[in-house]
Amino acid sequence: MFATATKPGLPQSGKLTVVARGPHIEVRWNDVTALKADDSTFASGFIGVRVCGDPGMPSDGTFAKLTFY
After folding, report:
1. pLDDT, tens digit, 9 for 90 and up, residues 27-56
2. Rounded to the nearest 5 degrees, what angle is found at the Cα of 45, between the Cα atoms of 41 and 50?
3. 4: enclosing H helix or E strand
4. Which residues are CB-contacts of 26 (< 8 A; sequence separation ≥ 6)?
5. Which of the residues 28, 33, 39, 64 has an alpha carbon 20 to 30 A from that of 14?
6. DSSP 5-45
7. Is residue 66 within 8 Å of residue 2, measured between CB atoms?
8. Could you tell me the CA-to-CA distances from 46 to 42, 55, 64 in Å, in that order?
9. Longest Cα separation, the chain
10. Is the pTM of this model over 0.85?
11. Separation of alpha carbons 20 and 37, rounded Å
């Protein structure tokens, strides 16, 4: 999965890449590995994206060029 995330007020966007092959999961932000994990809990499932905020700083998500393989 590839996605672009932007934060209002900042003149930049970020590239989120998630690679899941079997139990191996890697998350990259702007091509820098942010997380690596092995999780064999589920053999199949669904892809979801969640944007979180709080009452003081609500958040929105906008995605462009979103691709799933």
Report:
1. 898 899 988 999 888 878 888 877 777 778
2. 95
3. strand 2-6
4. 18, 19, 20, 33, 35, 36, 37
5. 39
6. EE-TT-S-EEEEEEEEETTEEEEEETTEEEEEEE--S-SS-
7. yes
8. 10, 28, 20
9. 40
10. no
11. 10
